[in-house]
Amino acid sequence: MTDTAYSERPGTGPFAKLKFSDPDRTINGEQRAFVSLKRLETFWINTGTLCNIECVNCYIESSPTNDRLTYITAAEASAFFDEIGTLGLETHEIGFTGGEPFMNPDMLAMIEDALTRGLDVLVLTNAMAPMQRPRIKEGLLKLRRQFGAKLALRVSLDHYTQKLHEIERGSRSWEPAIAGLDWLSENVFKISVAGRTCWNEDEEAGRLGYEKLFKARGYDIDTSDPGALVLFPEMDDSADVPEISSSCWGILNVSPNDVMCSFSRMVVKRKGEDRLSVVPCTVLPYDRSFDMGATLSESLAIDGGCFKQGAVKLNHPHCSKFCVLGGGKCSASE
Ligand code: SF4
Ligand code: SF4
Q1: For residue 247, what are the domain limits?
Q2: For atom 1 of ligand 1, which residue has the closest CA?
Q3: How much distance in Å is there from the Cα of 182 to the middle of ligand 2?
Q4: Residue 134 located in a structural domain
Q5: Could you tell me the CA-to-CA distances from 112 to 244, 247, 264 in Å, in that order?
Q6: For residue 86, with 0-12 CB atoms within 10 Å meaning exposed, 13-18 middle and 19 or more buried, which class applies?
Q7: C-alpha span between 11 and 28 (Å, rounded)
Q8: Residue 202, phi-psi category: left (phi > 0), alpha (psi -120 to 50), beta (remainder)
Q9: Which residue has the least CA distance to atom 3 on ligand 2?
Q10: Residue 74 domain-assigned?
Q11: Residue 108: inside a domain, yes or no?
């Protein structure tokens, strides 16, 4: 679970009709910014959108009933791992996100497959009941013993207080998440935490709050490390956001190489479709205009629409709000 959510094309307010309509030009006629794939460092697998809970602002609208993205199988994941090898893509990390990945029946097999190939694995989880089933715990312990810190888990804890965490995730969601984190910590897994920045407190105060919690519970997580405590900006589908033109990079002092689609891709399996779809990032799982083909090979060659010789044109409000202006990234290596 990356923990964020979407409709087909967010931004349905009056500005959205004009902005983000031409893949090549912004509303002012400037060249729309685009991002080239520099190196496929992290390949994400969306394991399916089903989740054991339903959070208020889940970016992917996961729930116990949302199966718009269905479970990917170990065989399908394996075909992508093969492709990474045959294409010589230098990918070092496989990320698993959902939904809740541990609801996918093939989850342990997919993790083991990636680790056996020498890849690092990052699993985004809420650490609640699906992860805490005895079969999963046994499997995780076995993998940890065999592969050590090559296996990392990132647990979503929306705030360091039970009260605010449960505003987002529902009542009785705090204690199971803490129990999952306790278990991971006690068993020396490599863990990180994902939180949100929507609580009207500055980042420094937020990091200090998490630091106190982690210290009290004995978690070995460096809250000053943005890769160990990842704080995500909120995504508001109805907000009016500026478009990003090519000239914005210099003005904002942001490099295209800092944006997730310069170093990642994700595969999703849409319900009722017989082809898988590669998309640029974890942030845009549903918008079909960002589909790049059924294989990594197809995705590298795509041109036209939202793509420019394999580069991604930033023609979506989330490109501005979350990535360029918000600094959102999803990789463990960031
Ligand atoms: S735990 Fe919440 S945010 Fe994460 S996938 Fe499930 S519903 Fe979404
Ligand atoms: S939301 Fe847009 S800018 Fe951000 S990673 Fe995805 S395609 Fe790139």
Answers
A1: 14-324
A2: 126
A3: 33
A4: yes
A5: 40, 44, 21
A6: exposed
A7: 18
A8: beta
A9: 319
A10: yes
A11: yes
**Which ligand has its closest atom nearest to the C-alpha of 96?**
1
Burial of 130 (0-12, 13-18, 19+ CB in 10 A): buried
CATH number at residue 173: 3.20.20.70
Number of domains in the chain: 1
Tabulate helix, strand, coil % of the chain (nearest 5). Answer: 35, 15, 50
How far apart are the C-alpha atoms of 82 and 80, rounded to whole Å?
5
Probe target for ligand 2 pocket from 40, 43, 314, 325, with the most ligand atoms within 8 Å of CB = 314
The atom number, within ligand 2, closest to the CA of 290 reads 7
76 assigned to some structural domain:
yes
What's the gap in Å between 317 CA and the centre of ligand 2?
A: 9
Residue type, 123: V
**Which residue has the least CA distance to atom 4 on ligand 2?**
319
From 290, 323, 325, 334, mutation site for ligand 2 pocket: most ligand atoms within 8 A of C-beta: 323
- With a Cβ cut-off of 6 Å, ligand 2 is lined by 35, 259-261, 280-281, 283-284, 312, 314, 316, 318-319, 322-323
Place of tokens 């779809």: 277
Q: Which CA distances in Å does 275 have to 62, 136, 236, 241, 291?
A: 21, 29, 30, 33, 11
Distance 174 CA to ligand 2 centre (A): 31
Tens-digit pLDDT string for the chain (334 aa): 444 333 344 444 555 558 999 999 999 999 999 999 999 999 999 999 999 999 998 989 999 999 999 999 999 999 999 999 999 999 999 999 999 999 999 999 999 999 999 999 999 999 999 999 999 999 999 999 999 999 999 999 999 999 999 999 999 999 999 999 999 999 999 999 999 887 788 889 999 999 999 999 999 999 999 999 999 876 666 678 899 999 999 999 999 999 999 999 999 999 999 899 999 999 999 999 999 999 999 998 887 788 887 789 999 999 998 889 876 554 433 2
Among the bound ligands, name the one nearest to the CA of residue 258.
2
